[in-house]
Amino acid sequence: MENLRINGERLWDSLMEMAKIGATEKGGVCRLALTDLDRESRDLFVKWCKEAGCSVEVDAIGNIFARRPGRNNELPAILTGSHLDSQPTGGKFDGAYGVLAGLEVIRSLNDAGYETEHPVEIVAWTNEEGSRFAPAMLGSGAYTGALDPEWCLARTDLEGKSVAEELQRIGYAGDKPLGGRPVAACFEAHIEQGPVLEAEEKPIGVVTGGQGQRWYELTFIGQEAHAGPTPMARRKDALVGAAEAVQLVNQIGFDFQPDACATCGMMQVSPNSRNVIPGHVWVTIDMRHPVDDRLSGMDAALRAGVEEIAKRRNLEVQLDAIWHFPATPFDSDCVAAVRDGASALGYAHRDIVSGAGHDAINMAGVAPTGMIFVPCEDGISHNEIENATPEDLTAGANVLLQAMLRSDQK
Ligand code: HGY
Ligand code: MN
Ligand code: MN
Ligand code: MN
């Protein structure tokens, strides 16, 4: 098993083929969850898996499981995978790399005529990005029970379309139940989406866990009025309140250094007319920290801060906390399997905590789980210019193969 390697060229070609679906001008992809383009990417993935001899099942929230039998199919599966949905201005590698690295592992096992003890499964999770339907990691959250499945299926996009109806529309409302698939070990390969590995010229990140996250939706309600005759002192301007809140969120990010992150990514202004004082503004907030107490401190600072703004500006305020998961460590055996795989293959590597959320973080709640990171150019992701090298992507997939085989031997 030690001398098994993946076919890096075939992996790169599959990534470039997949990147044609939803390709954008600047070389990225836009494949929002459960759109026709997401369906196209799912169909291509299913086709490739069947060509590789896998059986394919889809669960009730559209998670796709491709299964390669092992010698003893009573054993729990060795699972790997990631997501095919993207950000609106996403990159070619975020998510797709982990799905296609899993497929490449199966293709390479086939080439070598290598029979594993356990069955091997690749998964493509639904709505990992949380861009069209909030929150993120929805498919794996429903699968693992980290999120309530009915709540997940009822989530709607900004046009009021639900996950459930969109799954039906694209033909991926699967007949398999959510969860309950026995998993011996789970690994996810992903680009780092930050600058550390590239700066240290290390092709492999041994991911020890992920930081905690909290998502909120903040609404300020003031009073629509005419932009001309309404004196400044009489205004209840919801957008000015929201603007202060955006500054507050950014300041909380700095106040809780080191390691805190705080972002307002979306804003909706109503009635959104040049000469009407905004009466209703909705803002999204994403806060993260690797230490739970510090993330709780950020939460408290946010709650106190938005109340103070509302009071001072004579506005109504509503802060909905829609999602939270704590800082999550990965399984020590899986982390060791990744680290030893990188060492055995002679790849420079270092331990790293994931700044991004991943489906592996949900999986860590139900099975021994680990992740492999590879560098991305300038640490840029969630951007159409996202880039990675064939060499690093190959290295990551080779480590994935070794880690999975080691778990298979246990
Ligand atoms: O937000 C994240 O960390 C991931 O891209 N869903
Ligand atoms: Mn991702
Ligand atoms: Mn992402
Ligand atoms: Mn008028």
TrEMBL record:
Q: Which Pfam families match?
A: M20_dimer, Peptidase_M20
Q: Where is the Peptidase M20 dimerisation domain?
A: 211-310
> What's in the keyword line of the UniProt record?
Hydrolase
InterPro entries from the UniProt entry = Amidase_Cbmase (IPR010158), Bact_exopeptidase_dim_dom (IPR036264), Peptidase_M20 (IPR002933), Peptidase_M20_dimer (IPR011650)
Molecular function (GO) terms for this protein are: hydrolase activity
PANTHER family the record matches: ALLANTOATE AMIDOHYDROLASE, ALLANTOATE DEIMINASE-RELATED
Query: To which protein family does this belong?
Result: Belongs to the peptidase M20 family.
Q: What is this protein called?
A: Zn-dependent hydrolase
Q: Species name for this entry?
A: Fodinicurvata halophila
- UniProt lineage: Bacteria, Pseudomonadati, Pseudomonadota, Alphaproteobacteria, Rhodospirillales
